[in-house]
Write a structure and sequence with these properties.
The complex is a heterodimer. Chain A is mainly α. Chain A folds into three domains: 97 residues, Arc Repressor Mutant, subunit A; 168 residues; 123 residues, no CATH class. Chain A is 62% helix and 9% strand. The termini of chain A are far apart. In chain B, strands 1-5-4 form a three-stranded antiparallel sheet. In chain B, strands 2-3 form a two-stranded antiparallel ribbon. Chain B has a two-stranded antiparallel sheet with strand order 6-7. In chain B, α4 packs across α8. In chain B, 37% of the residues are buried. Classes of the chains: A mainly alpha, B alpha+beta.
Chain lengths: 468, 194
């Protein structure tokens, strides 16, 4: 006897190999049947398990076994027909797979929308005689029914729109052959028109009409938005504002759905007017866009690191502009010959000489410098501050580097934290004529064996006419 | 050595320096270039210079470690590294260019226009195109996944800087021969069912 799996484990296996169910749903949709032949399912399963190892093959065979599917309640009924046994999958299971693969959405038909509308009118009528009392179970149930209907209708339409927005793909596959051959194009044109018109009339137009706030229905019946308004008003009059608000939110969602469908309608219209060259261009763009989409979809997996598309495959097929990039040019040493340039150099040398000649003795006793206790650290910081206040500064592009140089000369046991303390102190210093500006240029310094990367900070004089 | 055989004599140094500058900026050098001031396409003298002295320039760039590459379909030159160790980064740029151009082409075809208009200075992309490109959620996500973190503004800027599209005003662009070469290549490959 084969092993049985629980419902959740069966579903997990089904979802691990979604292609099997996708293919089954496609087959059911093609034959317009809600059931699938057991042997057809078996063939599909066998095709997919071929590359797997034996243990995994066994696992899949057990999961897709009819008995297991039935006992896990994934299949709700088995129909015995002349050509074998047919399985009826739970609608909710099929919905999950349709949700995962947009091309499997079933377009909403006119009939389906009409029946939805009819049940809304029915609810509207029932509201006429409702009590609007919180303790009346009939009223509570009716309200629940209305919100449930609206929720279902919205998700139905949303799925439909997602399917419709991928209409480019459908148009491309329908006309690929025709657009490629100039000789056969006129011949194909007729069938292509028929197919496209069918797609338009049966699926796009009904939804578009359904969501058009201006549409008038036969027999003077109110359209979706009028019906919603009437239901909402009834709640509003009876002081049921929270329900009325909820219905209003649905109303807004429905009207938001109208625009994207209108866009699809225009796209189909443009498509029908195209010449062969136009259609070829359209199809070429669409086909390549689908390749790109496949790459993009690979980035939407649960792997957080995988955020960018893999370029290699896409680039390799066209080889266009491969290797194009910016190159760095050699930069020049900027030696000057002007008087100002030399004056600058001498001023710099002078400043450095004064620093060397200034108080050079270490202020830190050897046992305090690495002491972790906060009191000692504070003491060390105070001495540093004092030293800082005696330092002379001038405008520089990289004050951190300047401080690093001075500190490493002055302090025998100089550490990174000393530099940090000094910089923080400088950035809080307000009683001097300099501004500290953080730039977006990076640089690095090395202390002992460690390197530190930092953003350069500029020191700029606030008073413009001040000459040192 | 006889001076008259020195290929450097045939080329004006300033022009050669300008070519070097543009190529190292990652630009392609096109046969026809858009003149911002006069608002028209005109013959690019730098291209002519490169074309007429191609052997000189090929060896010049080879000597400094680059490969001067010519694209026949789009009639443009660009610079590659001779022995490229950082091919990943280079591919990333090519991919970015291809993705942005493809999305523009797809948008154009979807809105019912012939792509030849996209290559025309009088037509091209306008403000409303940019608006709808920006509103297309999937396009924007794809751009992000192609390293255009800032979306369409960055993508158009990237293409403009490298001469794959020309900017004709604050909010209008058209695709250059270099960009056209890519889109036409895609169409040709599709027609031949490659």
């Amino acid at each position: 006897m084969k092993k049985h799996f629980s419902t959740i484990d069966t579903l997990k296996i089904l979802l691990d190999y979604p292609r099997i169910m996708y293919q089954c749903i496609e087959k059911m949709d093609q034959s317009n049947d809600r059931l699938i032949n057991e042997s057809v399912l078996a063939v599909v399963v066998r095709q997919h398990i071929e590359p797997l190892d034996t243990i995994e093959q066994k696992r899949l065979l057990s999961a897709f076994d009819t008995n297991n599917l039935t006992s896990a309640n994934v299949v709700s009924d088995i129909d015995k027909r002349d050509d074998g046994r047919f399985l009826l999958f739970q609608e909710s299971v099929l919905t999950i797979f349709r949700l995962c693969e947009a091309s499997l959405y079933k377009e909403v038909t006119d009939a389906k929308l009409k029946s939805r509308m009819a049940s809304l009118w029915d609810a509207e009528n029932r509201l006429e005689s409702a009590t609007f009392a919180e303790n009346d179970p009939d009223y509570i149930e009716l309200t629940e029914d209305i919100t449930e209907q609206l929720g279902q209708l919205l998700s139905l339409l949303r799925n439909n729109i997602i399917a419709m927005e991928r209409i480019g793909e459908k148009l491309e596959s329908m006309t690929a052959e025709a657009s490629r051959s100039p000789e056969k194009f006129p011949q194909y044109r007729q069938t292509m028109f028929e197919k496209t018109t069918h797609l338009f009339d049966r699926h796009i137009k009904p939804t578009l009409t359904f969501l058009d706030p201006k549409v008038r229905l036969l027999g003077g019946k109110s359209n979706l938005f009028d019906t919603l308004k009437s239901i909402r008003d009834k709640y509003r009059v009876n002081n049921k504002n929270s329900v009325a608000d909820q219905i209003l939110r649905y109303d807004i969602s429905f009207s938001n759905a109208f625009l994207p469908i209108q866009k699809v309608e225009r796209q189909v219209d443009h498509f029908l007017r195209k010449t062969r060259v136009g259609m070829l261009q359209y199809n070429a763009m669409e086909a390549n866009y689908q390749k790109l989409r496949t790459l993009y979809n690979k980035t939407t997996t649960s792997n957080l690191k995988n955020r960018f598309m893999d370029a290699s495959e896409f680039c390799a097929s066209s080889k266009f502009a491969l290797g194009l990039k910016q190159h760095t040019r050699p930069t020049c040493y900027q030696f000057g010959e002007s008087i100002a340039y030399f004056e600058n150099i001498f001023a710099e040398i002078e400043l450095r000489l004064t620093l060397i000649n200034s108080d050079h003795q270490s202020l830190f006793s050897s046992d305090s410098y690495k002491d972790e206790s906060s009191g000692k650290q504070l003491e060390r910081a105070k001495i540093l501050y004092e030293w800082l206040s005696n330092q002379q500064f001038r405008s520089t592009k990289d004050v951190i580097h300047v401080l690093h140089n001075r500190l490493s000369e002055w302090l025998e046991e100089y550490q990174f934290t000393d530099l940090l303390t000094a910089i923080i102190h400088l950035s809080h210093k307000s009683d001097w004529e300099y501004n500290l500006i953080t730039t977006n240029q990076f640089s690095y310094i090395t202390i002992d064996d460690e390197a530190f990367i930092y953003r350069r900070r500029k020191l700029e004089q606030t008073v413009s006419d001040n000459n040192e | 050595m006889n001076d008259s055989h020195n290929p450097f004599d045939k080329v004006v140094a300033e022009d050669s320096a300008e070519i070097y500058k543009q190529l190292t900026q990652g630009k392609v050098i096109l046969k026809q270039h858009y003149n911002d001031l006069e608002h028209k396409l005109e013959e690019n003298s730098l291209y002519t210079l490169l074309f007429n002295n191609s052997i000189h320039f090929l060896s010049l760039y080879q000597h400094i470690g680059y490969q001067l590459t010519f694209n026949h379909e789009g009639s443009f030159y660009y610079l590659k590294e001779l022995h490229d160790q950082s091919i990943d980064e280079a591919d990333k740029n090519a991919f970015k260019i291809q993705v942005a151009l493809l999305l523009i082409g797809k948008h154009y075809a979807t809105t019912g226009r012939n792509l030849s208009l996209l290559y025309a200075q009088e037509a091209g992309l306008d403000e409303s195109d940019l608006e709808s490109l920006k509103q297309d959620h999937e396009f924007c996500e794809i751009l992000k996944a192609a390293h255009f973190g800032k979306g369409w503004d960055e993508a158009l800027d990237f293409l403009t800087k490298r001469n794959f599209i020309f900017q004709t005003s604050q909010t209008s662009w058209f695709v250059s021969d270099a960009g056209k070469a890519f889109l036409e290549h895609l169409i040709e490959a599709y027609e031949n069912n490659e």
